[in-house]
Structures are given as C-alpha cells and as structure tokens.
C-alpha cells in the first residue's frame, strides 16, 4: 500500500515537471515572436506619427508660400517663405528642409464645383504653388531611421507628401457711402443740409461732385483697385452698391470693370445730399453675391464710409447675416468724422479686416492691400 502511494506521488511530480517543461518550451518559442511583434508595433506607430508631422509641415509651407504669392506676386519671396515655414516644423525631431526644386509654381483649375482641382506646372497665369515635402535619401533632411530595423526589414522610412496652395477666384461687392458728407473735403466738418464750405461758386446738390470732395478721393481709390485686380491671376467679378437715404445696386457682378467705373461715375456727375443707410447697402451686396455669385468663388464685401450709420438696419446685425452665409466683410473708414468703433466691430462680426484712411493717399494704399488679399486654399 505504501509503495503504491509513493509511486503515485512520483508520477504526479513527473507530470508536473513535464507540464512545466512544455510551458517553458512554449514561452521560449513565443517570446521572440512577441518581441518582434512589439517592435513592429512601435515602428508602425512611429511611421504614422512622422507621416502626420510631414503632412503638417508641408501644408504649413504651402499655406505660407501661397499667402506670400497672393500678397506680393513674387515667386522668389513665396519660395523663401515656404522654406522658412517648413523649417519651423519638425519631422522625426528634425526641421523639414525644402530644396528649391521641391517648390513649383503653376496653375490650378477645375471645370466645375464638384470636380477635383488639377495643378499644372508653369501654366500661365500662375495662381498656385506646389510643395513637395520629403524625408527621403535624396532630400535635404534625409530618410527617417526606424527604431527596430530588423522588425520592418529596413533601416529607414522615406515618407513624402504634396500640398498645393491655390488662389481662388473672388466675387467682390463694393458698398460705397454716397451720403451728403462725401461732398466735403477730407479736412472739412459736415454741416447738415448746408453745402460744403469750399464748393465751386454756385455749386449745389445735384451738381457734379466738387473737385476736392471725399467722393472723388474714393472714386480714384476704386479706380486703382480695379487696375490692381486686372493684374492678379484669379478672376474677380465686382459689383457696386451705394447708400445714402436708401441704397441701390448700381452695378451687378461683372468682369467688365468699365461697367463698374461707369456705374460709379453717374453719382460723380450728379451728387446728392443724403443720410447713411449703411446696413441696407450691405444687404444689397449680400443679395447680389448670393443670387449672382459663382458657386466656387470666394465672396466678400468691402464697405467704406466717411461718417456713421444713422438710418436703416443695424450694420453689425447685417454683417452677422453675411457671416452666416460665409461672406466676409472688410470695412474701411475715411476721414476724422468716421465711426471707427462700429466699423471695426462690423468687420469682426463678418470675419474680415478693418482699415482707417485719414486721407486720400492712405485710402489708395488700403484698396491696393484689399486687391492683393487673394484668398488661398489647399487644393491637394
């Protein structure tokens, strides 16, 4: 009986040793596989991280370069800005360095709103730039070293990413103040219904605007604005609404800038007294942009006044209506009598910019800046 008990215990011990041995063999066999899988997972995660970093750096370079190209129409300056923006972003711990050949200029087009943008190198007129971000053996930054080269079967990883920044076409609606104060000179203070202090002898409301009138300064600035638009790569259609007691759409959206000049000139030749119904002028601009605007053009309104809103709808509330429709409003004040605070708030409400021009020369500079402010977007 005792012998049988010892024999049973010995068999149990042998069985336990056998099971433990099998487990040890299994662990010894699987451990390298688990280590390889862990190394593989680490490198895969690192690859995804560096791809994201490269995309961010390349997109930032394209945006910065495209913005400079829009503002200055200078390819050399745009390339330098793109290279600088890329170097501020790290990919795998190193700044992204772009070679001159990594940046190309050309034209992006699409035949319809739903079609894809297509970039063609060196096609005129140039409206786009392409940035080729690389971390390859041929790039200035070199390839990316992997942590566990054996797990991936390679020592390095060579990601690439392309980004195209395109200047899009614009539909621009001008809302121009033709209230009575615009007949005054820039340094004169308005006096209600009375004529300006220094008009031509015998001048009265309904005659051509006086030679030194603020209105004529505005006409000169708009004329220069249209000249600048003719030199920009995108196609910009322009409309004009003017406001006084009421507001009117003088010129619908058109690519014929002579029509714009003629529409404005009718007020120059016959200038009348009136209040400042700015809100209705903006609303007329919203109507023309939404009813006549091109489906894939950026939409913006430029509002200029020398005074303050004193009749009609609140312009800030109307600006909020524009913002809800994706329309940007840029606001410009002209003369020391202008309500700068309200105009700045209006521009902010519609995600636009605000400028103040104390004289005609500065007003021209403002309109030049607006003409060069082409919106850009990443189309690839």
Notes on the structure:
The structure is a single chain. The chain folds into two domains: 17-167, no CATH class; 170-378, Rossmann fold, CATH 3.40.50.410. 43% of the residues lie in helices and 21% in strands. It is built from nine helices and 15 strands. The chain has a six-stranded mixed beta sheet, sandwiched between helices. Helix 1 (2-72) runs antiparallel to helix 2, helix 4 runs parallel beside helix 9 (360-371) and helix 7 (315-324) packs parallel to helix 8. The longest helix is centred in the N-terminal third of the chain and has 71 residues, at 2-72. The radius of gyration is 33 Å and the shape is elongated.
Q: What fraction of the residues are assigned to beta strands by DSSP?
A: 15-25%
SS-derived structural category:
alpha/beta
**Tally of alpha and pi helices:** 9
Reading off the top of the CATH hierarchy, the class of the largest domain is best stated as Alpha Beta
State the order of secondary-structure elements, H for helix, E for strand: HHEEEEEEHEEEHEEHHEHEHEHE
Chain-averaged pLDDT: 85
User: Kindly, what is the distance between the CA atoms of the first and last residues, rounded to a whole number of angstroms?
Assistant: 87 Å
What portion of residues is helical?
Answer: 40-55%
Q: Rounded to an integer, what's the Rg over CA atoms?
A: 33 Å
Number of domains: 2
Uncertain parts:
none
Strand neighbour order, sheet with most strands: 11-10-9-12-13-14
CATH superfamily of the largest domain: von Willebrand factor, type A domain
| CATH topology label of the largest domain | Rossmann fold
**What does the main sheet amount to?**
6 strands, mixed
Inertia-based shape: elongated
